[in-house]
Amino acid sequence: MSESAFPLDLSGVVPSRVGVGESFALKVKVLGETQVVPPTNFPFRVEPWLHGPFNLAAARELTFLDNCLPAWRGVLHVDGGPALQGPARLVLDGLRQGTFPGDTRPIATFDGFSWNTPGFHFLRLIEPESGLERWLNPMYVTPEAPTERIFWGDPHWQTFFSDGVRCPEELYAFARDEGFLDFGAISDHMEALSDRQWEYFMAVTNDFNQEGRFVTLIGQEWTKSPPGHRNVYVPGDYAPILRSSDARCDSLPKLWKCLEGREALVIPHHSANQQIGVDWSHGWNPEFERAVEIYSVWGNSETSAEKGNLRPIRFMGGEAPGQHVLDALAAGYRFGFVAGGDIHDGRPGHCLAHLQSHAKDDRWPQGLTAAYAPRLTRANVYGAMRDHRTYATTLSRIYLDTELAPVPRPRLMIRAASENGISEVAVIRNGERTANLSPEGDTRIVTTEYALGDMAPEEYCYLRVTTTTGEMGWSSPFWGDEVQE
After folding, report:
1. Helix 168-177 / helix 195-208 crossing angle, nearest 10 deg
2. How are beta strands 119-121 and 17-19 bridged, if at all?
3. Which pLDDT does position 50 carry in this prediction?
4. What is the rounded (10 degree) CA torsion for 139, 142, 148, 149?
């Protein structure tokens, strides 16, 4: 029996794509009740005052929550069937767990697993004393080492320098070690930062960038409505600070002027919100605005609640007609899809904002971005976001792989999977659902093809996956002129 409270749930992450015989790691957490973790000032157990003029988190009534058991010890069983090679038991002994010195929480990484057959595979974790079990995210195993992998990230966090909690170092460490992310970015509100603080932000971001382990992007949020908030990312290790409160950068035309001659990616977000959403009539910059954040803790900006959106934006007045992502696509704007947290609660990758006592009526679980890339590098992650080589999900590592087969018979080759089961894979064409592709046999998996037929150059198409538990995923769109290439 474990030495502390009984586990309420298990959480684990495995890579989405590996080759036959390739070794991979399993990252696990044992979860309990969600509880408030009060701030402390080392070495004194004293709660500091957080209501200063440079920390607006108090205005959001934020507290730091944690749902990992404090000091659980025990054994987890691993079940993957005869195709799985590796340890059958994971021992959490209180010594080799946690993420920082003195941390005894049951968070650990276990190596030495591999699959001996190709295709989709699923792992199951079992806590034998309680019978508690959890299926992990699907893995697609290729006969050879994959030329392109799927990396998971969240490129949208705030710190206590603006209106979040926790400092940059804490956020990056959490994203890597507890959120189990492959990449991420702080994109704080620049209007709250000084030039010197921005230098510090870039230094911390660069320090945490470790290719092959955890990738960071230098990011920042340009905060003005109208025309709507934008996150700005660069592929390198430096960017100028861009404040909407600066007369040199206080409009979209001026923002484009500030970025002229630079490589940058500018991403609109929570576009459908009535008060701080995006007014698409201000235009689209095809050079910089290559992606849109379709989902975050604020909800799904794809389409309206009236048209079936199950996670509409509810905060600050709710939705505004004409500001959804489908409205931008209808206007001819070409975006890839990403999702993120827009988190303020200090937990990128495992945000609990929807459980904050004051926020249960207007927050949703955060989103994630999946990036296709051959290796985990800053350049590759940035390139995937720029080149529409991403897909977006709610807080679920849905597997989604689409391949565009060329003429003379243009079609989509589709692979989708979820440990929770798939209820539908909808084909969205020019804003309308034109097909519903359902699982055959194993309800966790969809493998099929969809005939595209003729597409005019300006027509677009993407997939929307919905699981039996209500989680969602969106492929980035492609356009008719890409079908003909």
Report:
1. 20
2. unpaired
3. 39
4. 20
* Residue 62: per-residue pLDDT: 79
Please state, in angstroms and rounded to a whole number, the distance separating the CA atoms of residues 481 and 64: 48
CB 466 within 8 A of CB 423: yes
Q: Residue 64's pLDDT is what?
A: 87
CA distance 361 to 311: 11
Local structure of 68: helix, strand or coil: strand
The pair of structure tokens assigned to 393 is 């999900």
Q: Which helix (H) or strand (E) holds 338?
A: strand 336-339
pLDDT for 485 equals: 57
Residue in the structure block whose two tokens are 């993407």? 462
Residue 47's CB: how many other CB atoms inside 10 A?
10
Q: How far apart are CA 380 and CA 146, in angstroms?
A: 15
Question: What DSSP designation does 6 have?
Answer: P
Domains in the chain, CATH or no CATH each: 9-142 (2.60.40.10), 149-395 (3.20.20.140), 398-485 (2.60.40.3550)
Strand order in the sheet with 74-79: 89-92, 74-79, 124-127, 132-135
List alpha helices for 346-442, DSSP H: 378-386
- Which H helix or E strand runs over 172? helix 168-177
Task: Kindly report the number of other CB atoms within 10 A of residue 459's CB atom.
Answer: 16
Alpha helices in 8-148 (DSSP H): none
Provide the 10 A C-beta neighbour count for residue 307.
Answer: 13
Q: Are 202 and 185 in contact (CB under 8 A)?
A: no
| Grouped pLDDT means (10 residues each) for the chain, 485 residues | 73 98 98 83 41 48 87 95 97 92 93 98 96 97 97 96 92 97 97 95 98 98 97 98 97 98 98 96 98 97 95 94 98 98 94 82 93 98 98 97 84 96 97 93 95 93 97 97 77
Question: Are 128 and 160 spatial neighbours (Cβ–Cβ below 8 Å)?
Answer: no
Block residue for tokens 């025309």: 227
Q: State residue 39's pLDDT score.
A: 64
Alpha-carbon span 480 to 482, nearest angstrom: 5
Whole-number CA gyration radius for the chain: 22
Give the HSE-up count for residue 77: Cα atoms under 13 Å, Cβ half-sphere: 10
Query: What is the pLDDT at residue 323?
Result: 98
Distance (Å) of CA 473 to CA 167, 221, 406, 418? 30, 24, 24, 10
